[in-house]
Amino acid sequence: MTKYLFIAASAVLLATQAQAQDAAPAQAQGAVQAPAAPQSGLRGNWLRADTTRQQAQQRADAMFQRLDANRDGALTRDEALKAGPQTGRGGARVERLMARLFADAQSVTQAQFQAQALARFDAQDLNRDGVVSAAEREQARAARRGQ
After folding, report:
1. 136 versus 43: which is more confidently predicted?
2. Which of 1, 74, 122, 142 could join 107 via S-S bond, C-beta 3.0 to 4.6 A?
3. How far is CA 28 from CA 22, 58, 71, in A?
């Protein structure tokens, strides 16, 4: 048994050294590392992937459909609050999202929901090319934190 553990540990060690040697020349030359490509099946991948305006619109439409429980084309505060626990988020974050989404209104239409999502997209698209990169997203997030 000890023999097999030793062989497995040696294989892992050799693989790790080989990866380090492959990465060393790129780092030594001062090459800029590209951000990690999204992997399927992991939560949060959309945060690392470039997003087009059309994708943001589709994501907003899909979210509205999930939240509009009675499918009447209007999202009420009650519907959004009931859906909140399903998303796994709570507390102050949900309160901020609700305040931004509804302001003084009791409901929003799909067009209003989509317009707000696209306004957020436009605010993050710093170079106005119709694509929000992970770097732009992080810059917008840092700017919000600084306010």
Report:
1. 136
2. 74
3. 11, 42, 57
Place of tokens 């929901």: 113
Kind plus residue range of the DSSP H or E element containing 74: strand 74-76
Instruction: Give Cα 31 to chain centroid, integer Å.
Output: 26
* Cβ count near 63 (within 10 Å): 16
C-alpha to C-alpha distance for 72 and 51, rounded to whole angstroms? 29
Could you tell me how far CA 99 lies from the centroid of its own chain?
21
Is the pLDDT assigned to residue 71 strictly greater than 90?
Answer: yes
Fold of domain 50-128+137-146: Recoverin; domain 1 (1.10.238)
Taking the C-alpha atoms of residue 41 and residue 74, their distance in angstroms, rounded to an integer, is 31
pTM: 0.62
- Residue written as token pair 């306004």: 119
Picking from 121, 113, 104, the residue whose alpha carbon sits closest to that of residue 54 is: 121
